[in-house]
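Quick question, first post here. What does this chain look like in 3D?
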Amino acid sequence: MLEQQVSLAAAKSTFVKLSIACDGRLSAKSVGSLAPEMMTAAGVSRQKARYIRELAASITARRFSVNRLNQLDDDAVRSSITALVGFGNWSADIYLMMALMRPDVLPTGDLGLIKGIVEADLDAGLAEPLITPADLIERADRWRPYRSVATRMIWQHYLARRGKDIQTIANG
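> Answer (accepted):
Ran it through. Tokens below.
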């Protein structure tokens, strides 16, 4: 949720501030009990704060189980996540890739992936293409059954061009 439509560095900063606000114990209960102004002070937008509180309420009421997701196939995980308020296909795809380590996920709505492909094509001397979700799906078909791996490689290329890497950002 925190990584939606922001840089990885901004999401990491917000996560750290939320952790501090929860006395270092991030859980559905601790986040759900934060006052809205504490969440916004940590860098969470009002809309994302609402989504996070909804998620926390769903977890504490046992309507949603994060632990159960690893027992489900990709489509069932995607359905479970997108049924939550504020969580769409991008959130589901990133969760499948990063938390569940599923090998064949293609986050078609990821701007970093699309920009990374365009930049790799330019580096290879190809004319700048217009990448639509349909183009991406067709192109990535040859990456099966490791589209998650290919996506991570493209993200690394994208970040390396900017003098960054995923591990540095993730580790602060």
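The first helix runs from residue 8 to 21.
The chain has three domains: 1-64, 65-102, 111-170.
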